[in-house]
Amino acid sequence: MSIPNNSENHPCFNRGAKGSHGRVHLPVAPACNIKCNYCDRKYSCVNESRPGVTSAVLAPRQAQEYFARVVAAEPRISVAGIAGPGDPMANAAKTLQTMRLIGERFPGTLLCLSSNGLAVPEHLDALADSGVTHMTITVNAVDPAIGAKIYSWVKEGKVAYRGEEAARLLLERQTQAVAGLKERGITVKINSIVIPTINDGHMTEVARWASELGADLMNLMPMFPTPNTVFEALGEPSRELMQQLRSDCAPYLNQMSHCTRCRADAVGLLGQDRSREMGGCLSSCTKLPEPKEVSHPYVAVATREGTLVNLHLGQAPEFQIWGPIPGGFSLLEVRPAPEAGGGELRWKKLAETLSDCRHVLVSGIGETPRAVLSGYGVEPLEVSGFIEETLKAIYAGDDLSAFRIRKGKACCAEKMGSGGGMGCM
User: In which pathway does it act (predicted)?
Assistant: First the structure.
């Protein structure tokens, strides 16, 4: 099997590395945007060894410190990955920030994500910019009629889709994801869960589809019958069936046959999991504070007159930068906003402009800029009221509910006096 040239030290993408190089799965992604009929996610489980379970969930800076402690104990670690317990891109802000933090502190580490692909297309540039080198997309069907049997629902935004409509949407996003990842030079593996009587006769079609999109590797995984799921009674595919399916798919894609069906908090070499041993370390890292004071000391504000938070992010021509001083807060400077237009690139430029700010206070914001800014560590807050009163609550760590914009109020620029709808781009 030929190995992509950046995968020599990735044990999941290169069988030859599994005895010499290890990986750490960082459980920073609890939420999921689809419901698979074979999956039951658990966030405080120490007894089961399968995808979707972890003994704890970490915040991004906690994950960075946890990775540092693991590498000190096991220097053969070459990969930092996020594989759940939900979907990394359903938790895009935390995922992208974690990847960026690991890459900054541990240059040369391979950065790897495993996703269903639904929310990948909207973050393709951010994934490349954050240093992700490898990505796994789980594709169980390329026929919506089959996919409809596998997924109870697929959720995009606030809308939940079901049946073939859900499967068709997911496949569309997966197609965009694989093609877009390859365009950006990211190595792509396709995971497919083999489900007896459901999709076990469909794997060659998945392999052909993935090959045409330029995927690098395929991993056929036998379904693990999980209690309390729709498919718990179907049973696990036989070893003979799995061997035959890999043989059938091999003409289309190189096949991975050494998968160990890792937990979302797996640690160590494949087949030599140390997650139990590192469980105490993982637990202790969940108690670490998430420090922003040093690298993000300021707060940016979208304001018309400098007294109130009263501008939508997309309407602000500039941002005031505020910071603490003895006895209160001070306006430190004013920074111009990037020019309108340009889609996601506009918000990446803004994130760079506000890189020393922990928050940006706005009266409204769209989903794309929210995800981009959060991924760079600048957390948007939709609030209204006096700037200094809001800052006082933020720096004191107080409840911000009194300042938050109530849902249902205008959030798009056209509802705020601008006809262009620029704010939600």
Answer: Cofactor biosynthesis; Fe-Mo cofactor biosynthesis
- Distance, in Å, from the CA atom of 171 to the CA atom of 161, rounded to the nearest integer, reads 13
In this prediction, residue 421 has a pLDDT band, given cuts at 50, 70 and 90, of very low
Boundaries of every domain in the chain: 15-285, 298-424
Q: Please check the confidence at residue 223 and state whether its pLDDT lies above 80.
A: yes
pLDDT band with cut points at 50, 70 and 90 for residue 424: very low
Dihedral angle sign, alpha carbons of residues 376, 378, 381, 382:
negative
Chain centroid, CA 308 distance in Å: 34
* Residue 84 near residue 27, CB atoms below 8 Å: yes
The H or E element that residue 204 is part of is: helix 203-213
On whether the CB atoms of residues 86 and 119 are closer than 8 A, the answer is no
Superfamily of domain 298-424 in CATH is Dinitrogenase iron-molybdenum cofactor biosynthesis domain (3.30.420.130)
Residue-wise pLDDT for 80-116, tens only, equals 999 888 899 988 878 988 998 999 999 999 999 999 9
Beta bridge partner(s), residue 82: 113
- Residue 403 pLDDT grade (very low, low, confident, very high; cuts 50, 70, 90): confident
Query: Kind of pairing, strands 151-156 and 134-138?
Result: unpaired
Superfamily of the domain at 15-285: Aldolase class I (3.20.20.70)
What is the pLDDT, as a whole number, of residue 402?
A: 83
Q: What is the mean pLDDT of residues 244-273?
A: 84
Q: What is the DSSP string of 232-243?
A: TTS-PPPHHHHH
How far apart (Å, rounded) are the C-alpha atoms in residues 293 and 377?
Answer: 12
